[in-house]
Description:
four-stranded mixed sheet; 612 residues; disordered N terminus; alpha+beta; 20 helices
Amino acid sequence: MRLIAALVALLVAAPLAAGAAEPIKRHGIAMHGEPKYSPNFTHFDYVNPDAPKGGTVRLDGVSGTFDTFNPFNARGTPASAVGLAFDTLMVASADEPFTKYGLLAESFEVPEDRSWIVFHLRPEARWHDGRPITAEDVEFSFRTLVEKGAPLYRFYYQSVSNVAVLDERTVKFTFAPGDNRELPLILGEMPVLPKHYWKDRDFGAATLEPPLGSGPYKVSRFETGRFVEVERVKDYWGKDLPVMRGQYNYDRIRFVYFRDRTVTREALKAGRIDFFSENSAKEWAIAYDVAAVRDGFLKKERFLDKSSGGMQAFYMNTRRPIFGDRRVRQALAYAFDFQWTNKNIYYGQYEQPASYFAPTELAASGLPQGEELEILERYRGRVPDEVFTEVYTVPKTDGSGWPRENLKIAFAKLAEAGWVVRDLRLVNAETGEPFGFEFLYGDQAQERVLLPFVRNLKRLGIDVRLRLVDAAQYINRFRATDFDMMIMNNAQSLSPGNEQREYWGSEAAERPGSRNIAGIKDPVIDELIDLVIAAPTRESLIQRTRALDRVLLWGHYVIPQLIAPYDRFLFWDKFGRPAVTPLNGPSPYYWWIDPEKDRALAERRRQEQTEE
């Protein structure tokens, strides 16, 4: 049997030695070019390698609740903390567009055409129960995620044609023919699961049994709907690796759940949580005029966002016939008065994006030229003529709140699409069917933005029904594509790739739970996505992404809402922070508890209690 196994392993591994340029073992791999960090690097530049360990930090969980510790299937609402329990084969650096370095994998081999990857696991890698992490665990993880995990995994790993265990610590993934240079990096993101733990458990079910993992933390305490607490694994096998040094410095992290973000803000000001990301311009402007902020104990800071957070927008579900006409979708954009909204509701803090990749170099601008134009010429006659002749812009108003001229334009475009006003209602000129739809949302705070938008839509004769639902209904209806219009954001990276299929691809459009929110099914967009994925250089990636961006924009699948040029955080002054903030912005996982600050904060709170 050993001889047979050895022969099989030899045959599977044969391509490793084929050709004159045999692949070498690597410590890191960049999507384009070379990794920033050399093989002997000791830590990332944006961490403090000597950060002290200890203390407890309390973070806000997602508003609402959780009912499962299995985030890998499509059942239930997973707890925020659970991802900290699982290691991956590789990890990304936060100061490069897309580069991966080995975590569970000590090294890896990739040929020039990136048609396969071999991972060599670290011999010291261990599960929390002390058992070694093996190549069989990696193979099991891949097959389980594809067969029993959320549909996203089947879609994301569809180009993997084979996975084979070569020996106890070596596993090889082979890819289907095609030019997909990102696949080796994508496989590196795969969470690795313990085969021995899951063999007697139902992977497809929701569960509140804390999982067995291998990461820097494990679940220690929880109360459903209230909190999850994880504790640092003191003998964590990877704590001294260069990719882990200076990170995950707290002994305990407590994720606290509240009914909604209004309650969470009050909890922050009362000292019940330590760190909060503020997503409301209004609350940022007016909700924190409190003594703790004025005295500098509760820090309120903005950090410039150098990455692409993606476009937050009103997404129209083109699976609904009412949104099937591009002219209708464009017309509705003229009913959203961003200028008035930004001045009166957003406190002037936002910009309205004119790209899915704003504000980066990936965003389409001006008229197409160079490689971008060459690509788009292939599709002339299959994409809107405006792609070649007009610069995409979002509708502008005078900010008065009465966008009369824009509504006139909207009326004209609706008329072109066969809609007319009769008895103060917009109806189909042929069938008499009224124009109406439902706007689905899960956060009552959004009504401040929705109501003025709805008012303008009703001026067009459109019947809009607002439907507020709880978190569970919102998730379920989103997964089932059971909505007409909703506010969403497909976050973008600085190195777009396979996720674009999930966002805009035809196959994803019919798959429940996909991120193709608008339900786009366009062969041209599918081909443009393939070109983005196959980009051989960074410059080519930029040009191909701009072409994709431009065609998406002129499809009018969304109504651009906003983009923030910075991130807003509030945190109690108990943290030490690295001197360098990476491209992806600050993270509490790079911070640590500063003992002197922590003592000063505790003394202030004691004084307040005494005075009360």
